[in-house]
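re: ur question from the group chat, yeah i did fold both. here u go
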Amino acid sequence: MGVNKLSIPQELISKIKLLAPGTKLRKALDDIVLANFGALIVFISEEKYEKYSDIFQAGFKLEIPFLPEKLYELAKMDGAIIIDDNVTKILAANVHLVPDPSIPTSETGTRHRTAERVAKQLGELAIAVSKRRNVISLYYGSYKYIINDINFLITRVNQALNTLEKYRQNFDKMILNLDVLEIENRVNLIDVVEIINKGIEILKIKEEVEPYVIELGVEGRLASMQLLEIIVELEDILKNLILDYSKEDIDEEDEAMQILEVLKGYKERKPISTARLLGYEDIANINQLNDYHVQSRGYRLLRNVAKIPMAITHNVVKAFGNVFSLSNADFSALKEVEGIGEKRASAIIDSINSMRKRISQG
């Protein structure tokens, strides 16, 4: 099946990395494309290659170290080239491939039909280079992925990073506003679901652009660093928001992550559907969201702002119940909580004072 760029599985991403610019394999493939050669390459362990003699017929064994120049020269010949799955050795060349002809394929060209069938039958990686269209097609199991032109990738990644930066700036402003509302005990459910939905949008764009960054290989190192910088702590913040505002008191991170994954799976995230996933089944319209008062339990403040360990955060949440009560606690009351000493009590009070300072300055 063709791959949706929004949901590329990790097992396929690991194969895409093998072909990234800067790798020896990609150099050979680029040279083959520039020379207008076609190529059919299968990646399989030596043990499996020997096992499937009914599929890998004729040709001649090589068992020589992999070098881009050798692969380029062998691509001048007919037949498939067999490379070990670690891309360290060329096992054979001029091989006649005989996959099961009953395996369905959507391809029209002989080379691509064979590559797809071999990949499906063996569950291995196969690459077809089109002589006519100069396109590199990757097949792995039932997946198909077209390797993109590097100029297209750079443009696409830059556009996505610009969008992500704007979204993250907006998200951070929403979080700062939530800080104020939490301290003043004025949070409504609409404030929470809009922030969560904005954060999910960022994660979805990140998932969309990540395969392109991987495809860039060495050319994408700077983009990869930018991407990590943009999404830093985002998933943790969202997880803690779910712990803070789910209607039922949940204290397990795994449960919060499950809710987060469900939200990421929604094609369209509406405020009401997000609220219901958080447990507010009685929400029927947007007006109820606007008027529904909620209180943070304090997970985000304690984990993301004060950097308190989760086990001790649970103790604080149980002791104070919500951020408003926590914000009015004094130093001695905090120290009475198990696991909270002078240093952690000071970190919590400093975090709350910092939030109050922003309120007074705003």
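okk and heres the other one u asked abt
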Amino acid sequence: MYQLLSGLSVIEVSSFVASPTAGLYCAQMGAEVIRVDQIGGGLDYDRYQLTEEGRSLSWENLNRAKKSVALDMRTSEGRELVQELAAKTGQLITNVPEKSFLSHAKLKEAREDIITARIMGWGDGRQAMDFTVNAASGYPLMTGPADWDPDTAPPVNQLLPAWDFICGAYTAFALLAALRHRDMTGEGSELRIPLGDVAIGTVANSGAMAEMLYRGSDRQRLGNAIWGAFGRDFMSRDGKRFMVAALTAKQWAGLVEAFDVGQQVAAIEAAHSVDFTTSDHNRFTHRDELFALFQSVADTMDYDALADRLAKAGTTFERYRTMYETANDPDLVHDNPLFGTSPHNPSGFEYPAAGPFANMPERERGAPHPAPYLGANSEEILAERLGLGSGAIGKLMDSGIVAGSDKE
């Protein structure tokens, strides 16, 4: 964990994926991120998959390096404590609806320069989740085998909640931009980050929206082929499936060399009066002939021998793995400095945990920090942030408005 944001504190009232991700990225860069949860856990506290002890591995990994305060936010006293924590701290990350006790207007009454970063569904207030905004994006209807009938083929949903993670990362960025603005001007900010806008905006930024409008139609399904370039999955003689990609002339030359198909490629070029060395377009247009050629070579070689040739030729390729294989891969995980062992996870389960993704050669990344037990820092935060004495905190705990650690 880096310390670039040391001295910054953020209150987080959130659930599921996007909002906790924003707080996680801040925490991994050294910010003090204080989660405020409903006593007993919020909507995502027992999200699948659970260990035998009932601990969520999803919650545990999205909330590393944070602190936890447990309050009964169903009560007016509990909600007032959250409002006061947000005002005293000055910045809030949340996905609680705007028309709630954590509205920006309400918090601004207590602190004029407060910054609220609120993740929403759609910009007009409608609810949304990653899988529903993905349905609106168009990608599920462009995904799948090339021979599927476009009129009857089903959509293909992605397993990774990509829009959630992009939204979380963008929220962390927007929060830091608002902090810089406040440092320069003294002004607070209300940031509303709709998940739907993140998705449709990303579609536009990728050029895909302009492409469809220019074409006047949808892009066809391509299976595992790369759109607009040469790339696809192939299978070796010993049944290993791998992906290759050639988006540059150098990558293409390396593939031709590794597969030793120079003469055959030249024959295809001559037959169509094209040059594959300088044009992504030509390689993509004639992909079916090229795919068949490269697969015919893969049919004659075991993967290890072919991978050795691909590596020596400087190509871009990778073998397909199951996620269980990935989790046990030495290069990807165990010998990767991104990962460290977090031995004090609330689940009691020890496993490699990711630290901050940025690699800063002149700084020590440090070991990943565990997630907190729910309510582990309730007394500490209420005392330090709000100046409450032990007697006042004791009364709040006795009345059920505040809870301590759920370790037991």
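fwiw on the second one: DSSP finds 17 helices and twelve strands in the chain. The radius of gyration is 26 Å. idk if thats what u expected
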